[in-house]
Amino acid sequence: MEVNDRLGDVLACLDDLDDAIWKPYRHEGAGGPPRNPLGILKVLVVKRFKNIPRDRKFYRRLWRDPKLRRICDIEGHEKPYHPSQLCRFRQRIGPDRLERLIETIVEKLRNAGVIKCEIVTCDAPFIEAYSKRDSKDDSRGYSDPDARVGRAIGLDISSI
Questions:
Q1: What is the mean pLDDT of residues 87-107?
Q2: What number of helices (H) and strands (E) belong to the chain?
Q3: Same domain, 68 and 10
Q4: How many domains does the chain have?
């Protein structure tokens, strides 16, 4: 069985998560209808499964690969989800709801026999980094002495 076919079967279990995903997208008033957030979630899952680190790289791949478009619920006449839409999805869904969604997905995958482990890890791109300057040397980070903070990196924008 081809990887894309298996991935499509796995993502079919996400179709009943509609209500949890659509909640932050419901709105009244002006503006067009939002793109399908379930499709955006599928794009993020497929991107992680294919081990593609950048949203833009996967965006370009969606333009070329009709199988990936079908898996991610993108119709032939639609454009792929832009990287900015993926970023807004992560912000709108929020860490708590995203954690619940991932727990539901992992449970469904475990019940389907796709994964057999007890612990599944997931990175958290929605968590903002925090660093403060070292009081003794303000060009370095306090918690990470190797991190160069602020204007100390030597970027001169006047020459640009």
A1: 78
A2: 6, 0
A3: yes
A4: 2
